[in-house]
Design brief:
alpha+beta; about 280 residues; nine-stranded antiparallel beta sheet; three-stranded mixed beta sheet; globular; 9 helices
Length: about 280
C-alpha cells in the first residue's frame, strides 16, 4: 500500500465521517515545539493536539464499551479486512496518515502469538511505521488486540549491527523475518517479567534496503509520577521522540529537562538496556 493509496483511504473516510474529517483537518493547526538539551542535542518534538485528550486520559476499559469491536464502532467507520485483522482509519490521528489495525476478535492486547503479523504489516505498509503499545504502556484499548500504523520515523542505532541498542531501546534489524522472530522471542524471555507480558512499546518498519527494523522500548512504568499535573501518557510515539500534549498549558511549560525526566522515569536504565542487548547478542 503506497502512501498515496493510504491517503486516498483516509480522504474517503473523511468525506463520509464528520468526526474523522474534523480531526484530520485539525492536524494542520497542531502546534510544534522542538526541545533540545543544554548541549544542543534534540530531546523531543512537542505536539499540541487537543483531540488526543480522549486517548491520553482514556477511562479504564471496564468503564466503557470496546470501541474497536464491530458492534460498538460508529456506523460511518469502514474497515478493510486482512486475515484476522481489520484496517481502520484512526479518527483521533497524531499524524496525517494514521491507521488502527484491529483484531477481528475481542482478545486482550498482547504481542505473544501476534508478532509475526506485525512484521507482515510492515510489508503491507512499506512506507509507514507499524507500532504496538503494551496494555500498560499507552494502549488506549488494552482490552482489544491491535497495532497502529502511521507516517513517522523512529530512532535507529548507529551502524549495521543486527542487534544494537540506544539509550532506552533495543533494536533488531535483518532481512530475515525468521531471525527477527527468533531474537524477539529471546528478548521476551529476558525482559523484566510483568503480567500479562513484559512492559514495552514496539516500533517496526521496512527499510529502503529491504531489511526490517524492530525497535523495542522496554518499560518500567505505565505513567510518570507527574501524570495528572501534566497530561502526558508515554506510548510508542512519545518513546520515538514525539511528545503529544493535549493541554495547551503543558505544551507551553514542558521543558527539555522535564521531557527527559518523563521518558527516563518510565524506561529501563541505559545500563539495563546494554545488559539486555549483550545477552541477546550471545
Amino acid at each position: 500500500m503506497t502512501l498515496q493509496y493510504a491517503k486516498n483511504i483516509i480522504d474517503r473516510q473523511c468525506e463520509a465521517w464528520s468526526l474523522c474529517r474534523d480531526n484530520y483537518s485539525a492536524l494542520h493547526r497542531v502546534e510544534k515545539r522542538e526541545l533540545s538539551d543544554t548541549d544542543g542535542r534534540h530531546v523531543t518534538t512537542l505536539l499540541h493536539n487537543p483531540a488526543r485528550i480522549g486517548s491520553s486520559a482514556a477511562c479504564p476499559a471496564s468503564e466503557r464499551p470496546c470501541f474497536l469491536c464491530y458492534g460498538n464502532r460508529p456506523a460511518e467507520q469502514t474497515a478493510i479486512v486482512h486475515g484476522d485483522y481489520e484496517i481502520l482509519v484512526n479518527p483521533f490521528p497524531i499524524f496525517p496518515i494514521h491507521f488502527t489495525i484491529s483484531h477481528r476478535n475481542h482478545i486482550p492486547q498482547t504481542i505473544s502469538g501476534h508478532f509475526k503479523s506485525m512484521l507482515e504489516f510492515c510489508d503491507i505498509f512499506p512506507e509507514l511505521t507499524v507500532f504496538y503499545n503494551g496494555p500498560e504502556c499507552g494502549a488506549s484499548a488494552p482490552d482489544h488486540h491491535h497495532f497502529q500504523a502511521a507516517n513517522f520515523q523512529f530512532p535507529q542505532a548507529d551502524g549495521k549491527a543486527e542487534i544494537a541498542c540506544g539509550q532506552n531501546f533495543i533494536q533488531i534489524t535483518s532481512a530475515s523475518d525468521d531471525f527477527i522472530l527468533e531474537k524477539f522471542g529471546q528478548l521476551l524471555n529476558i525482559l523484566p517479567q510483568h503480567t500479562p507480558e513484559p512492559m514495552m512499546n514496539i516500533l517496526s518498519r521496512r527499510l529502503d534496503d529491504g531489511r526490517k527494523c524492530v525497535t523495542v522500548f522496554p518499560r518500567l512504568r505505565h505513567r510518570p509520577s507527574c501524570y495528572g499535573e501534566i497530561i502526558v501518557s508515554p506510548a510508542s510515539v512519545e518513546m520515538a521522540g514525539y511528545m503529544v500534549t493535549p493541554r495547551k498549558a503543558d505544551f507551553d511549560t514542558i521543558t527539555a529537562r522535564k521531557a527527559k525526566e518523563i521518558i527516563e522515569e518510565v524506561s529501563l536504565t541505559t545500563q539495563e538496556i546494554k545488559e539486555l542487548c549483550n545477552r541477546l547478542s550471545q
